[in-house]
Structures are given as structure tokens and as C-alpha cells.
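Protocol step 4 of 5: obtain the predicted structure for the target chain.
Materials: sequence only (see below). No template structures provided, no constraints applied. The aim of this step is simply to have a reference model before the mutagenesis design in step 5. Sequence pasted as it appears in the construct record:
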Amino acid sequence: MFIVILTMAVAYSAFATQLNLNGTAEIVGEWNVRIKSIQVQNISEGCDAGEPQYTNTSATFNAKLVKPGDSITYLITIENAGNIDATLNNIVFKEQEDGSEAIKFTTTEVSHILEAGNQTTLNVKIEYDSKTTEIPSIKTKTITGIIEYVQK
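Step 4 output (C-alpha cells):
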């Protein structure tokens, strides 16, 4: 009986193979949705668009309007410089509640899907309401906007 067990063990070991697996994983995805540029698109004569300031994630502009009907439009270019597609999750623009009623802000839509390597643009138009008949006592208004893209 001992010989049978020994023979079976030798036979089993002749048909045994040890497999070794080795692997490495690396994350190569890059998330990089950012503001690429801001340009003054249209400006009424006599108005001052200032020098728009921006970083990858924020933009500031300071428009000076003279008379009713004047306007300045800023063209903001947003790009997906990463390699992960992005989806628009939320966009909110809120005007200062106690700001001038004579100043109007309007914006255009941005792309809902911003594929890797692509760009979208957003126009922000600031206008001195043409229906204004008197110089308002409050002469400023601020807009705050959030454009949030998430991984698709």
C-alpha cells in the first residue's frame, strides 16, 4: 500500500505545474477641465472692458458701461485638456440681489458633453438696460457663476 501511495505522489508531481502571475497597474487618466482664455467679443463705444483676469478655474472681469444700451460681451473658452470625457453637472449664475436693476447679465449655453481634447465657449454679456430713463442710485451689480463638469 505504501508503494501505491508513493507511486501516486510521484505521478502527480510529474503532472503538476506552478503558474506565477505578476502585474502592475498604472493610472494614466488625467482630469483637466479648465478656462483656456477670455476675450472681449463686443464692446460699445466709450465703454471699458478692463483686462479680464483668469486662472484655470476662475475668471474675473470688470465692465464699465456709460449709457443705457451699452454692452460688453466676454467670450470665455473652456477646454478639456485631459484625457477623460466630461459631462456638465451643474451651471448656476446668481446676480447680486441688491445690485443695480439697470445692469443685466445674460449668458449662453456651454456643451453638456466636453470630450477630451475639445473646447466649448460661453458668452457673458453685460448690458446697461436700454429702458433705463434715469441714472440709478445703485450703479454696480456682481454676478457669480459656477460651471461644474464631472467625469462622464
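Step 4 remarks: The CA atoms of residues 3 and 9 lie 10 Å apart. The domain at 29-151 is CATH 2.60.40 (Immunoglobulin-like).
Proceed to step 5.
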